[in-house]
Amino acid sequence: MEITFLGTSAGVPTRERNVSALALRPDQSSGWNLFDCGEATQHQIMRSELSLYRLERIFITHLHGDHVYGLFGLLASRGMMMCEAPLSLYGPPGLRELSDTVMRLSELRLPYDLDIIELEPDTTLSLPGVEIKVLTLSHSITSYGYCWIEAQRPGRFDRERARALGLPEGPLYGKLKGGERVFHQGRIIDPAEVLGPTRPGRRIAIAGDNDRPELFGPCGPLDLLVHEATYLQADFDKLPRKFKHTTALQLGKAAEEIGVRHLVATHFSPRYGTPQQMQKIKEEIEIYYTGKLTLAEDFMKIIL
Ligand SMILES: [Zn+2]
Ligand SMILES: [Zn+2]
Description:
- The protein folds into 2 domains: 2-153 and 200-303, Ribonuclease Z/Hydroxyacylglutathione hydrolase-like (Metallo-beta-lactamase, Chain A, 4-Layer Sandwich), CATH 3.60.15.10; 159-193, no CATH class.
- Helix content is 24%, strand content 27%.
- The protein has helices spanning 41-46, 65-68, 71-80, 95-105, 159-164, 171-177, 233-238, 248-258, 275-285, and strands at residues 2-7, 21-25, 32-37, 55-59, 87-91, 114-118, 124-127, 130-136, 144-150, 182-184, 187-189, 203-207, 222-228, 260-266, 292-295, 301-303.
């Protein structure tokens, strides 16, 4: 599985960071999923290895501009490219009204089927090989977190064993890895002969804006959590008006309690940019959190 960060800034873009968007490509799939689509996400996609032709689903966490203002440009460009593969668009209530209004007033007609699905809070979506739990978070408008829970995965492929059985490298290996039986030199080879024990699926959570990271507790333990850490605690405390965002300190504490193997902090206030400031964020998260920590950057990739 491959995750590419396309935007990691909160509210407004900076020279180094665009606003929120993240691509997730599951194992053995050339198709990919987009989580959030801040302004200029299509430009970020053009600068990455991703192609709009292969985009299959978009999940919007909430309707704030820094998470959704890039959506219609992207949908329109995908249409101008004469991409005819259908696209599913998931998100909170209001997404249909927003989409219908923009598309009607701007006369946007798409050559592909766009299926808009407004998700009810706390539901579970079943897609091939994965269940996605929709969590209601705590923000100024309805904001969702998506828990991506893979089905059990086949065991690891034992190359030595396959060679010992006289199997040539190539398509037969792929079939066996995928759990298919193969016919070779007059006999049927069962995948169990070359695969180790089945492995549990991975649990990944991608959060929308949220000031209560502990809400991911019921999804834990998590292999990966991608969550905002918009402010350092001291800066947040000084804000004359509080917005519903998480501080680095709060995120570290919650991630430690939930049981997160790899934490990726993102959605940083544009006030932070220097390596020293980023180091402070890291240190504040690590006051409580003892697992693997990464501070997201645009175009950073995580392979799981
Ligand atoms: Zn935001
Ligand atoms: Zn927001």
